[in-house]
Structure formats: structure tokens, C-alpha cells
Amino acid sequence: MEEYLTVGRVAELAGVSVRTLHHYDEIGLVRPSARTAAGYRAYSASDVERLREVLAYRHLGFGLREVAVLVDDPSIDAVAHLRRLRGLLLEQRERTDAMVAAIDRELRARAEGIRVSAEEQLEMIGARLYETIGGAYTATRRTDPRIAAQIWEALGDARTVLNVGAGTGSYEPADRDVTAVEPSAVMRAQRPAGTAPCVAARAESLPFADRSFDAAMAVSTVHHWSDPFGGLREMRRVARRVVVLTFDACEPGWQDRFWLTRDYLPEFGDLLADFPAIAAMTEAIGAIAEPVPVPWDCTDGLFEAYWRRPEAYLEDHVRRAVSTWTRVGREAEQRAVRTLGDDLASGRWAERNRGLAGLDALDLGLRLLTA
Known about the structure:
Blueprint: E1 5-6, H1 7-14, H2 18-26, E2 34-35, E3 41-43, H3 45-59, H4 64-71, H5 78-111, H6 118-123, H7 129-133, H8 137-140, H9 145-154, E4 160-164, E5 177-181, H10 185-189, E6 198-199, E7 213-219, H11 228-238, E8 239-247, H12 259-264, H13 268-271, H14 278-285, E9 288-291, E10 294-295, H15 316-320, H16 323-328, H17 330-346, H18 348-352, E11 361-362, E12 366-370
Parallel strand pairs: 4-5, 4-7, 5-6, 7-8
Antiparallel strand pairs: 1-3, 2-3, 8-12, 9-12, 10-11
């Protein structure tokens, strides 16, 4: 026989008011499945489980509408919610620790009469996007050997290499002397043992002398920089050779190259509205650009990786490792996932994209700049 907890007992255990629980019931967020003999609300184990998820997401700062979308997602079970919550809480802890450290630095500076710049003040609250998505990176973001071969060939005979926006270390060549630069504490913490030494710094302000390296590389990171041209010029300053994997968002009809942005996520175009043109970036550093086809079985879970494996985009852990999904917002994400799921089930996706089945690789706009 299933046991139930009274609304008063649930409120006591959860540390919330009975009034809050009544409100959740009224709006359909957590509706207890039973009533006591006296007519009071009573919660089953599954009711409590849902309440636990709601309160955890609320603790992380999600609004009630956002929480409703999260807990009503039919593709996520209790274990998946726990894993997601754990990752979000760890990332929140990282951000909090970073803010405390920044506050301590500013307090010391002010105590010593040192003027704190506007940039330094904003760094205290400027949580990078990677601090939000970084906890999911190691699950799906791995070096793809075919893309890596193209990048490493572009490095030429460089022996010393600076990896800018290095993340967790993907695409760092093992046979060269590599130094990494990464602003995100979450990313730096996930770099495997034995990888290159990593410096906490931004692309726009590299802490190295002119021509310190034979080559500088940057892989799928320029779109996260606050000043892409500034970062590219810094790479050009500290290295004799520059290799950058980035994205072309200026070719006419570029958004139609990929069925995901064409049919399900048009908001992607807004994200790159201000992104520099490939021609402008190549001109800034004197580079040439060449296409980087995405293999159908790409092992690096970047945004375009699953162009022939559409079911992957229904997986939360796949989306969490790609900044695009965080940046478009939960409403657009949930709509895209729901519509894609419906089209896969009905066969509409297969009919619309039947030409992809026999392709081994596809040009989806990735470009390798070499200067």
C-alpha cells in the first residue's frame, strides 16, 4: 500500500510554506494525487519526486514557466533530471567561487589604494557562457581525427603552439609543445591529466610577448569572444602562424545549408547576426579559408555533428554541450526538439532529407583560416 505525506509534513521537510505548495497545486505545477480523510492534500512518492525537481530548479533561479517546461519534458526521466541538476549546481558553485575570488581581489586592491578598472569590476559578474555549458562538454565533445588532421596539417612545421580558447583540450596536437589559454574555470577543471599547461586568460588580451610561438590555433571559439578581430590580431601578434576553425555565416542562403537551422531553429540566424564575415576575418590576419566538411559519424559533438543522425538532437546531454541551445533560450529549444521528434516519428524528416542518406561528409559552413 502506497504511503502519502500530508501537505504540512511536505512543507516542513522541503522548507517551504504550505501556501507555496497550494499555489503549485493551483497552477498545475505539482498537483498532489490524493486527499486525506479530512480533505487535506496528500503527496505520493512520485509527487514528492516532482516537487523535489521543481524546488531544485527554482533554487537555481528558473522561473515557474521555465520549471514547468523542464519537469514536463517527456524525454527526461528522474535520473536524467538528477544528472542535469548536479551539473547545474556544480557549475553554479564554480561561478560562485570565481565571484568570491574576484571580490577578494578587488577588496585587496582597494585596501592598497589601487584603482580598479571598469573591466575588472565587470569581470566579477561576467559569467562566461562556457561556465553554463561547460559541465556537459566531456560527455560528447571529443577530437574528431578527420577534422584534427586538417587542423594539424595547417599548423605546418610549428613546434610551439598556443591553443586559444582551448576548452578541455580537444584538437591539441600531442607531438608538439602546446600552451593553452582558457578563461573558463569549468573548462580548465575538466582538462585531462597530462594535457598542456593552461593559462587563465582571454583571446583579446594574451599574456605573451610578440612572436612567442611558432603557431597559434583556435578551434570553434571565435564566436564566444567579445572582440573577434581583437582576438585574431592578438593571435597574429604572438605567433608566426595562425590557424582558426570558425564558421561562415555570410554566404547567401547559409542558414538553409543545415536542415536543423532551416526547419527547426531559425533563431540560430539571430545569434550570428553580428558575427564577422569570413572575408573580413581573413583580411584582418592575411589568411586563406578552406572548407572543413563534417563527417556523418563525427565524434566531436559540435552543433552540426549529427546532420545524418537527427535523433541525437533529442538527447539533452547532446544539446547541453553546445552553446547554441543555451543561447537561443529554452522556449526555442523545446519547440525545436518537440517538432523534430514529431517529424522523425511521422517520417517527414526522412522524406524531406532523403538526399543525405548516402553522403559521408557535408559542407555545413565550417571554415579553416590559415595565415
